[in-house]
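Sorry to interrupt, but I need a hand with the structure work. Can you supply me with one protein entry, sequence and fold together? No commentary is needed, just the two lines. Leave the record below and I will have a look.
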Amino acid sequence: MTPTPIQRALAEQAYAEELAELARADRRPRPPNWRLSPWAVSTYVLGGTLDNGLAIAPKYIGHPRLIEIAIATLTTDRALLLLGIPGTGKTWVSEHLAAAISGDSTLLVQGTAGASEEVIRYGWNYASLIARGPTDEALVPSPIMTAMRDGKVARVEELTRIPSDVQDALITILSEKLLPIPELGQAVQAVKGFNVIATANDRDRGINDLSSALKRRFNTVVLPLPATVEEEVIIVSRRVAELSRALELPAELPAAEEIRRVVTIFRELRGGLTEDGRAKVKSPSGTLSTGEAISVVNSGLALAAHFGDGRMGADEVAASLTGAVIKDPVQDAVVWQEYLETVMRERHGWADLYRACRELAA
């Protein structure tokens, strides 16, 4: 039987060969229930070359010390909080850390405004609960409870979107490594290897600040935006290539120069200054992160593949770019129009992109 194609492979599936080779080559001490040593986890995330010549692709491009601090935190009794604006790779890093450490990135709690304590602690199969009362069989463990029982890493995405009283359900888990189940007169004690990686940002609406008691249970690592244009171009190029293969887009991958134009526009608009430092520009309401730059290029590729000649040009870039910049139809439209006329119009070699963006903005 032909296997059903998967739209998005898990990190442990997509990089199974790398993880297996790292495990074979890894001779360093491993914390209890870790699949790899901290050194090997770092090599997996940051990239490197093994003794057998296998190249490990970097999953994170940035300051390596941040990843080393994150990994070292997970070897202690402190949980890890990855903080940064949307699109800085927090989810991407947390998934790969969990895959490398536990071989399982699926123990995930997605933070939402409507999340209840059940997503952190446990729930019940209500048919069984009504028929037989609270029993072990009626208990529905949360991903965090499962991670505690198995000695694995659990992930909590968008922690600050979870209501504050629900967030605090983590305090006992993180401080005592214990999850009481009073209905059964039992408690789950965490097996060695258990820890939590949470992600959060301070830019979205509907944010619930962490209590000081919960903050103390986390070691915070801030993931910044890429420091240079070159670094950001590499990140966007790598992710676009991976997504293009996964989505099987019948289009040529864009040249680095085309990606550089998108990245340059994003960096100038979010920084409020042109690349040469000579002119100030207004910033739109959106964050214009690296993640959004990846989406712009990927959307341009999809347009070129299905409604063009398979080669992404200025028309395809402009279509995706305009939608990414203009989130507020009034304020952002003015900002974008001014950028087009004062910066893009005067830039050598950008006439095609200026024309395409100008037609859409008209």
User: Anything to note?
Assistant: The radius of gyration is 23 Å.
